Amino acid sequence: MPLREECLWEKLTPQRPDNTALRGEVKVDVCVIGAGFTGLSAALHLLEKGRSVCVLEAHRAGHGGSGRNVGLVNAGMWIPPDEIEAGFGEAVGSQLNRMLGAAPALVFSLVDKYNIDCQLRREGTLHMAHNAKGEADLRSREEQWKRRGAPVELLTGKACEQATGTQKIAAALLDRRAGTLNPMAYVTGLANAVRGLGGQLFDHSPVTRLERVGQQWSVQTEQGAVLAEQVVIASNAYTEGDWTELKRNFFPGYYYQVASVPLTEDAAQAILPGGQGSWDTRQVLSSIRRDQDGRLLLGSLGNGNQKPTWFLKAWADRVQQHYFPHLKPVEWECTWTGRIAFTPDHLMRLFEPAPGLVAVTGYNGRGVTTGTVVGKAFADYLCNGNPQALPIPFAPMQPLAGVGLRSCLYEAGFSLYHAGQCLRIVI
Ligand SMILES: Cc1cc2nc3c(=O)[nH]c(=O)nc-3n(C[C@H](O)[C@H](O)[C@H](O)COP(=O)(O)OP(=O)(O)OC[C@H]3O[C@@H](n4cnc5c(N)ncnc54)[C@H](O)[C@@H]3O)c2cc1C
Fold first, then answer.
1. Is residue 198 part of a domain?
2. What is the C-alpha to C-alpha distance for residues 333 and 338, in angstroms, rounded to an integer?
3. Domain that residue 296 falls in
4. 40 in ligand 1 pocket by Cβ < 6 Å?
5. Distance (Å, rounded) from C-alpha 239 to C-alpha 58?
6. 351 and 322, same structural domain?
7. Is 239 in the pocket of ligand 1 (CB under 6 A)?
8. What's the domain count of the chain?
9. Which residue's alpha carbon is at the smallest distance from atom 32 of ligand 1?
10. Do 187 and 289 belong to one domain?
11. Distance between CA atoms of 319 and 111, rounded to whole angstroms?
């Protein structure tokens, strides 16, 4: 079977709404640009507080990273909590650690409250040590999170083998706060909830211009405009057009995934038997999870659209055979890629370029929970004006130098690493 270029989550979310484009003028309290986790969480929490909201989406809800990701509902950031506090200072760092540590619980509560059918599993995640250095890193993370009272546990020996389903991993950090979901179904559920609360959501409405008109903002599309007191720019890594400086504040990187056909029940159950989603400690990491139908999903950093399908298959075969050699050869069904907004220090940026205008970027590949949290924080801040609502303070917009060059160098590094894996130079 040839490997199809298709996002599995789209196929598994058949009830995706396709709203009409904005025509004419709409007046609301808040206009949100971008219908991903950030924009829709902002819209939902603003509506809950009684604000009128209009969301403008260039394509359809979930077109960006929110519809294409691995679906790991992570607690915390990539960077360990001690380093966050060292970097931001204790007050801000501990607030960020607290908010993102509790972020999966926020996602779970929205799923429950709005009855979102997104194949959510709350069994946690497993960060898997692929070598001794990785194990030392996980031991340190375990100690840091335990000091903060988080329910994490480093599994070793038989317990680790039973949880991961592989003998190639010596230790795995189980984070019981976390989980997995179908991200397209989650973002679709948020969009439905926004509409259910009376929010207006226009698809196929790329913003082309944003300007101050008296005390209001005019957000323009090709065929219409929204007049609003406040605006949330939530277009992140997928920002289109030159109406904002945002896209000069991150450099784009990519992440691809390859999904198998549904495996037999025994074969599927042998992979991550506890139902957790996982990723390993490699610098060019591999993510590993199963979906509701027993497909094996593997992913890694890099742009799959620029690689031949035989290469993607060879890489997926290699990772599968390395970690799960007991499986019969796996048939790969589909592959897709998404764009990630990276920052040089791997930390997100919040901006308030003018009063009543807020923006965010740079989740660095951790946005299921972060986007949900930031959207809610923006809603709180826009309603009460209290910056304490935000996970980190606003920063000035600061265009990055050498964005194109950075992206190219990263991509080249990822490809070399994957080629090394296929050739068994990298084990
Ligand atoms: C392949 C991949 C795997 C990932 N895996 C994980 C994971 O397992 N766990 C995790 O936590 N995070 C993961 N991430 C990161 C996460 O998906 C993103 O950080 C998150 O989805 C960002 O959400 P967002 O709402 O901020 O932006 P997006 O979801 O990108 O939404 C932005 C929206 O803005 C729209 N837009 C752009 N320009 C305009 C315009 N001019 N007018 C109107 N609308 C516009 C876009 O069409 C898009 O729909 C992954 C990302 C990728 C790409």
1. yes
2. 17
3. 252-341+402-427
4. no
5. 9
6. no
7. yes
8. 3
9. 235
10. no
11. 32
